[in-house]
Amino acid sequence: RLENMTEEEAVPRLEEDEDDVSSVSSGSSYDLTNMELTDILKMEIEAGEYTCLICTGEIGVQSKVWSCSTCWRVYDVECVSDWSLRALKDTKNMVDGKRSWKCPSCATAYFDPVVDYRCWCGKVQDPVYNGLMPHSCGQTCGVKLDSCGVHGCSSMCHPGPHTECTAIGPAMLCKCGKHKRQWPCVMTPYDSGWACQQLCNEVLPCGEHRCRQPCHDGLCGKCPELVESTCYCGKSRNVKIPCNQRSAGSLSEVRDGDSWLGFFSCGEKCGEFYDCGVHKCELKCHSRQKDDHQCPRRPQPEEKCPCGKTTVLEVLGRERESCVEPVPTCTKPCDKKLKCGHGCMSYCHASECPPCRFVQTVKCACGSQMFDVPCGFQSAGKKPRCRKRCTAMMDCRRHRCTEICCEHEQRALERERLRKKKLRSNNNTGTEDRVTEPVHQCQMVCNKTLNCGKHQCVMTCHAGACRPCLESSSEDYHCPCGMTTLQAPIRCGSMLPKCRYPCTRTPPCGHPAVEHECHADDIECPKCPYPMEKPCACGKQIIKGVQCHRTYVSCGKQCNKELPCGHVCTKICHDPAKESCVTKCQAACKKQLECGHYDKKPCHHGRECVNLCDEQVTITCPCGHRQQKQQCPRTAEWGSLECDDSCAVAERNKKLAEALGIDTNTYQDSRPPHEYNEDLLDVYLADPNFGDMIESQLIAFVQNPEGKRVLKFPPMKSFRRMLIHMLAQEFDLVSQAQDAEPNRNVVVMYPEKGIIGLIPGDGIGREVIPAGQQVLESLPKEDGLRFEFVKLDAGFELFKKTGVALPDKTVDVLKNECDGALFGAVSSPTTKVAGYSSPIVALRKKLGLYANVRPVKSIKGRDAKDTDMVIVRENTEDLYIKEEKTYDAADGTKVAEAIKRITETASRRIGKIAFDIAYKRQQARQLDPSVSIHKTPLVTITHKSNVLSASDGLFREVVKQAYKDYESQYPGLAINEQIVDSMVYRMFREPEIFDVVVAPNLYGDILSDGAAALVGSLGVVPSANVGDNFVIGEPCHGSAPDIEGRNISNPIATIRSTALMLEFLGFTQPALRINAAVDANLSEGKVCTPDLGGSSSTTDVIQDVIRRF
């Protein structure tokens, strides 16, 4: 073309080429429009701008590479080697029964791993850069070309596709072999050959004619020439038929001397009379011979009946006389063998045998039932059908086959059994028979929602995950501010570009907007933080410094609005127009009963007080000597006791004392003095005057319990402080040394006394709750704690006896008398029982126990993974409010619904207590870093707001807002969040990253029980139900009726729950003592119950923990 160009045409083209070259060499930009892939690869690799798809790193001339032979994509050898080796280990990557790995770009399957760095053509390992082509050996490529399949690539070793063959092909004969020609290799017809178009002229198979086709390959075929011929019977003469349809000639001769050669059959019946002159020949066109038409029905010598068992002579007593006379039948069974193998059951007969009437018992098509069927039915290939519907799973594993009497059911069920067996044995190699018969291949449309959340899968119903959504939008995407654009087509589910420009929206309040980046319309702008003065919800107070966006403001004070019953509303600041006051008053009634006491039962406005008083009164005999406590008799008259003999003895002694001048009120002081131990006496004798003074002060201290509660002594020497400690122990007092020398002194005080409610509940709760009592009773005196215990009733067993799971008396005693409680276990039924509801759930509501706190901590040397987390679970709402209903749908099926309630108040206070716990744990870590695996406090908010955007979204936002509001109170505290399903996965995979986890009721319940598996069992994990004014320690395990009474239930969770209760009551030191003893027991691992692999009893474990105090 250049030779035919004029100078004017050639010059502009050369200038354009020079511009192209300069733009490539400058490296500023490449015009790749008209470049070959080989040149593009060479240019980008030399410039170090080619990207590996696996590691996204840049590939240059010094890299080690491997190229796909299909898409020519280039990868780093180390990346693709690791990619291939990992894929070949996975049994799921099977192609044609072999393990394979696929190119990340085009998914071409390979069966061998990549291990070496070779040049593009593969001849040289570790090629050296020659300056011409990166990663090339510099030799001729030589790879056999797909375009011809004969020659190799003549280019120098190169990346990318090969050029077309430029060689001259071999000389080729035409199809008939008479001529020879030669073409360029790419034009040579290797497969089809070529024809010279001359006539073949070869002799055909008939030997008489020649082939009249043009030059062709293969045999010439049958002779097509038309030849005049006569049929065998002679009825069709001189008929032209193709030569290849003629057979060898057959001579026919008849009696009248006529003869001919027959070459084909005309297909007509012969129709000639037999020699009898009565019957005609029924055969089709055939050659004729003289005397060949003898009647086949003529009498034969020793002729037999049709069944062949009896001669005609025996039947008739003579032979047949002519062909017209029928062959007689005998009276014997036919017994001719039928197609099915049975004999004919009819009597001797001349016609064809009837169908077999023999009956067989065979299985139906699906093999589940037996049927009696005629033999002919079965021999025809038919099977009986039952009415059983097939139950096999379709290949999609979502639907079942509904075929009646499916013949493939047993095969499908057997395949399913083998699949489950391999799953149970963890032997699923991926090579099992996955071929599904066509009848069990589901033909329904999948219709599942794809990962984009907008479109449905249109594939035939299938097992496993659906493919990614392939829908795309043809419209460009513009961000709200218009500064960022993504051009179409946009694949569904694509991550839209993040705009880096500021958002231009104006807040509806009119305040200056918070600076933030542009965002989609479904994402809210940051809430306005502008400080304002707003009235609280109840309208009693104006709150300053409230952020503009907050619509609910609380003054934190009790409502105190008078209720119809006369009590006041106990709700915290609320708007009466939006939230009504307390509808069910829980305050004590306090109305005066007939007996003069006050009714302590919960308010029962509108109903009369039940005249039943629970007060204990003391009644005496007339002389006042006898006294007895009893329940109030509900009247003003309490009655009295009768005097007995002891009264007379007391009266006599009184008169005798008066006669002797003895003061009976001080008589006991004349008893022998208390005997001190020898060690105390030895210390006392060192300074008796000081000892007498201290004894006198302690006597005065204990005789005046209503006075001061603490007795503080001045600084003194160590042996004097020792005397005070020893005397305080004798007086059952608590003593503590304070300050450093020389100002060290002793403080003596009354021991702290607490009343603990014990609610064993059901099952093993009656075995493990006493463990908490024994632990509290065994605490050393230096801890300064004394406890009294009140045994209370609750549980399903109590409900079955009395119809009440949680008596009012239990709640009243806990509210009015107890400082805390220990709750055992409840055997809650799995189905609904009329009138029954869980007592522990009711206690949480009635006592305001809004938080369930569950520490989960591993023991060094015992548990595989380091774990030290506290799960804080909201206790009063979510699905546990038990507002459920069932109803009938339009199609008559049952529908059940439950309400999931999340409130801002409950979410805020559960977040606040989680922050408190995290901060206190950090303070303990600062005092002793060895107590935890964490360095800084962290609260993880768990939710499912990506699906439940309203309920869980409110929980998430309120807890995060609470953190912002209280952030100044918790320096160093951080928060993060986890979707609950991700939380479960990460909790078991890396539990060491979690410190404090806060969650709604349902998620917290599941997470806390599951976390127990990280540290052994539910028998070692404690919990506490915590409110503002009360706490209940509660082990995590159930009632376990299967081991009740065997003394093998694990008491560790109860003991730890006891320590947790003490911690929230403010008794930190005794709680640490109990936890240290439990940790020592578990770490040693010698005294353990069977659930931890030991053989010790419940009692043994309790005593082993106590001895470590």
Q: Would you write up a description of this structure?
A:
This protein is an alpha+beta fold and 1109 residues long. Among the domains are: 37-153, Herpes Virus-1 (2-Layer Sandwich), CATH 3.30.40; 202-211 and 220-271, no CATH class; 513-575, no CATH class; 678-748, 2-Layer Sandwich (Ribosomal Protein S8, Chain: A, domain 1); 864-887 and 895-1014, Isopropylmalate Dehydrogenase (3-Layer(aba) Sandwich). The chain has a ten-stranded mixed sheet with strand order 29-28-30-39-38-31-32-37-35-36, sandwiched between helices. A three-stranded antiparallel sheet has the order 25-27-26, with helices on one face. Strands 1-2 form a two-stranded antiparallel sheet. A hairpin with a 6-residue loop joins strand 1 and strand 2. The longest helix has 24 residues, at 904-927. The protein starts with 6 loop residues before the first helix and ends with a helix. Belongs to the NFX1 family.
Task: Set down the secondary structure blueprint.
Blueprint: H1 7-26, H2 37-46, E1 50-51, E2 58-59, E3 65-67, E4 74-76, H3 77-89, E5 94-95, E6 98-99, E7 101-102, E8 109-110, E9 172-173, E10 180-181, E11 226-229, E12 239-242, E13 250-253, E14 259-262, H4 312-316, E15 359-363, E16 370-374, H5 375-379, H6 409-424, E17 472-473, E18 477-478, E19 485-486, E20 490-491, E21 531-535, E22 542-547, E23 616-620, E24 627-631, H7 645-660, H8 678-686, H9 688-703, E25 710-712, H10 718-730, E26 734-738, E27 745-749, E28 752-761, H11 765-777, E29 785-791, H12 796-802, H13 808-816, E30 820-825, H14 839-846, E31 851-857, E32 868-874, E33 884-888, E34 894-898, H15 904-927, E35 938-943, H16 951-966, E36 974-979, H17 980-989, E37 996-999, H18 1001-1011, E38 1024-1026, E39 1031-1033, H19 1052-1064, H20 1068-1084, H21 1098-1107
Parallel strand pairs: 28-29, 28-30, 30-39, 32-37, 35-36, 35-37
Antiparallel strand pairs: 1-2, 3-4, 5-6, 7-8, 9-10, 11-12, 13-14, 15-16, 17-20, 18-19, 21-22, 23-24, 25-27, 26-27, 31-32, 31-38, 33-34, 38-39
